[in-house]
Backbone:
């Protein structure tokens, strides 16, 4: 099982889910380039889905050499887009896929919201103040206990020179900044058309989890995903926007049941 995180996150986001699912399968939660323990890229323009897809394909090829030839996929946001691209490749064998609050069409307002904080490099006196900041930009993740939130935040932070900083390459925002409003709209339209084509070509069971208040995955896009291609099974999680963190017991049980109960 491969679990892939969202745009500015890292693989430790899946700690809770991985502990549960490791009863059924080997679980691998990689850090994408520029995040967590992975290296930062020399060329900021390489922080794109094709780069990540090639990297994960290489990881899966290494696992195949160990005798693992069939994979399940859980992808949150960006991780879901990577999964769709890989699932369309004939040499990649995916058994089932969970798409967590993402689809071929990304709502522009969500991109604008993400752009307000992506790439900034604030520093904090304590881990708790850093966690408080992350909460201020992540309340759409839904309710968490203070203990759950701090556990989710700690892997995102590194101490440097007496301060705590977010541990990802700020240059992942360069691709956002490189576009004007016009070129961004054109690129989004082209990417959406390609992703709908990719999604429509898939032939595997798909669970689509949507935050009921999501500003990234619209109800219309989610509905269309249940009607074409793999005809995803859709579940909306109440009280959550973009994106469910998959650490609440009901969310973990939802993924586990889809992957391993049938």
Residues:
């Amino acid at each position: 099982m491969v679990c892939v995180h969202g745009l500015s996150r890292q693989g430790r986001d899946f700690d809770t889910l991985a502990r549960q699912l490791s009863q059924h399968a080997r679980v691998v939660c990689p850090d994408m380039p520029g995040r967590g323990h992975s290296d930062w890229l020399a060329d900021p323009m390489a922080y794109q889905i094709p780069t990540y897809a090639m990297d994960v394909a290489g990881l899966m090829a290494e696992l195949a050499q160990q005798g693992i030839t069939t994979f399940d996929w859980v992808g949150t946001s960006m991780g879901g887009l990577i999964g769709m691209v890989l699932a369309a490749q004939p040499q990649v064998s995916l058994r089932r896929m969970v798409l967590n609050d993402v689809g071929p069409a990304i709502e522009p307002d969500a991109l604008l919201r993400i752009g307000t904080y992506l790439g900034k490099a604030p520093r904090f006196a304590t881990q708790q103040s850093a966690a408080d900041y992350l909460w201020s930009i992540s309340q759409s993740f839904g309710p968490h206990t203070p203990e759950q939130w701090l556990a989710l935040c700690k892997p995102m932070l590194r101490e440097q020179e007496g301060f705590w900083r977010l541990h990802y390459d700020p240059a992942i925002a360069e691709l956002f900044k490189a576009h004007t409003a016009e070129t961004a709209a054109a690129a989004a339209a082209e990417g959406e058309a390609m992703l709908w084509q990719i999604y429509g070509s898939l032939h595997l069971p798909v669970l689509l989890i949507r935050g009921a208040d999501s500003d990234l995955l619209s109800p219309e896009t989610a509905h269309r995903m249940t009607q074409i291609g793999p005809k995803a099974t859709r579940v909306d999680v109440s009280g959550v926007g973009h994106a469910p963190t998959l650490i609440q017991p009901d969310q973990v049980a939802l993924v586990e049941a889809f992957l391993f109960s049938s």
